[in-house]
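Q: Hi! First time doing this. I have a protein sequence and I read that you can turn it into a structure. Is that right? Here it is:
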Amino acid sequence: MKVFAFRSIHTQFMTATTLLIVGLVGSIVWVWANTESNLYRQQQQSQAKSLVKLSAYALGNELSEENWGQIRVDLDLLMRENQDFLYILVSDARKKNQILASSPSDFQNQYIPDIVPVEVTNAALKSRHSHAVETFVLRDIKFLGHVRAKRGERFIEVSSDIKLVSGETIGTLRIGMSSQQINRAVVYAINQAVLVGFVGLAVSLVCAYILAKRLSDPVQRLQVSAARIAAGDLQHRAEINLSDEIGDLAKSFNEMSAALQASFSKLHKTLESFERFVPDKFLAVIAPEGIENIQVGVSATRTMTILFCDIRNYSSMAEQMTPFETFSFLNDFLECMGWPIEKSGGFIDKYIGDAIMALFDDEATDCALRAAILMQGTLSLFNEERIEKGLPAIAVGIGIHRGEVVMGTVGFNSRIDSTVVGDVVNLASRVEGLTKQYDCQILVTESVVNSLYHPESFSLRLVDKSVKVKGKEEAIAIYEPSYKHLKV
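A: Yes, that's right. Below is the predicted 3D structure, encoded as structure tokens:
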């Protein structure tokens, strides 16, 4: 039976594994990108602090001599050489931190530049060491006609005291450095992390697919095997040679299949044996829902032909034989009589000592007459073998009658038997008894003759047109049939 794709083990495993891998790879990429970003920022700030510190040291003599022209030239040169510099400010602590040199020159003679928040300026002027802070631009910054930063752009300002050789602080150097290089490095790091993540995800998904297939394929093969066994192929075995739990499951499955096959084989043999006791045509009536549902009192009405066969003088024969010889003789005799009945389409209802009761449910009685004639023919061959062994020949009488009977089960819960009930059965038995009186091998009633499809195939001799049998008020006609062209 097909199921939704999402319910398959393979799909569930792949879905769970994919979500796990995506979450894991996503976490790794995020941590990697965040770490790289912080690392780049720390490196740039460290480098910027070193640069500002060296520059402040170099400006110490110029500032002490108030060589403002040279300082401005040096600042412009630094701005040209470093595209990431947004501005450079030099304030003089001796003149209330007035900016006396800057690049761009817009900020000269200001005390608090209008490009950064006031708190950034205060922090830079109060610091006595190299100081770095991330902030944003309050307005556009241009240098030599080119925009170095736009309003609102994030950047880093690094500041350092300008000291004399004696250690006296005489000013402050402030450099604004663009974060674009950091951003580019961070984007590159993120791209690298994402690329590695995608590669890792692809490799992981391939591995997960292989693993899921390795896990689901045996299960699917077990499912196919179970379906084949359910369809009746009990000889099928799951060919899964693994050393894990699935292999153990397949081994247990095959052991179960072998046990089912053995049980089914035993059950099949039991059914075959049961059918020897109860013919198929009986089972169709008494057990329409299966023999496991047989109940007492199940019955059906049928119009059938009843054949009785009995050994003449059996009692005197049995007295001269041991029980074992009698048992062996009966089996040989019943086998001899059984196959003509089966070959002609009839079935044996029961054995009554040495007597045989057979039924024919054809619409015509031709098969029953043919069976009776064949039985007498096979009996002749049977007697020839007995005479060769020095044993006496035997004779049988066969009586046949046709009419309506009831087929069904009788008994009680612990002992049930199948049987045919009706006056037709008794009459067929009485007709068989008349074979001794009229010295005939086969006698049939008028109802049998009237039901023949091909009466011309038989030579029918009227034995008695009006004979009364025991237990019957109405007289019946009886005939003796023969079939000269029938070969055994």
